[in-house]
Amino acid sequence: MELLEVENLFAGYNHSPVLQGISFKLKAGDFLVICGPNGSGKSTLLKAIQRLLLFVQGKIRLEGQDLFRLKTREIAAKIAYVPQVSEPIFDFSVEETVAMGRYLHQISRFQGLTEKDKALVEEAIHLTEISSFRKKKTSQLSGGERQRVLIARALAQDTPILVLDEPSSHLDLNYQLQIYGLLKKLQQEKGKAVLVAEHNLNLAIPYCHRLIFLKEGRIEAFGQPEEIINREIIQKVFGIEINLRENISTGLPEISLIHRTGLRENLK
Questions:
Q1: Alpha carbon of 239 to those of 19, 37, 257: distances in Å?
Q2: Are 184 and 164 in contact (CB under 8 A)?
Q3: Cα–Cα 20 to 30 A to 228, which of 46, 130, 198, 265?
Q4: CATH 1.10.10.10 for domain 1-71+200-268
Q5: pTM value?
């Protein structure tokens, strides 16, 4: 049974659809990446499948159940969401923020963390390598450090589906690779379904099973990277010309931009 089924989805804001006719399925162990230009609907799609939008039409099923009939707590038990990094609203410590991922499992809001809760929080902190600043306030962290804290909170939530909105934002190259390596490990070893909105195609290609290219709220292409990444599709989706080559490490397609002739000279 699929963990998530989206069928003919229309969604947006103030009764104005951003997404139009979106359909896809996600099962345990899937790694699906959504790419597209700014304004194509990537973040809107992630919000829609968590019932975070008022205007949604179509069918969304979570483990076979109608998403719109589920309680918020039931959705949060299945989907952990990592938003794009923003300034912290509440100045909790890193450790406290990660522990928030366990609150939905508590019967009473006055209940403390169980031994299982503490173990999952510790595992999340270890996996995301944030132990060295666990006692710091989130307001004292860089954007990249806060991103890792948000990912740790999602891991502590211990859900079958992980949804991430541009997780590589604000991270340096080393941590980008570490985060995607961690997501791949969770997908392979724990059977997590990973759904990511990402702008960095070259970063995402080696890790994902399938790609969705969005353009103006519609699916322009959907399939395995080696099937759908070509010059024609990239031109159609992003409006740019590219060079395409085979990555010598993975054998998968890799993209480089074609710059204007004489650009280097003009920059001197």
A1: 20, 9, 12
A2: no
A3: 46
A4: no
A5: 0.89
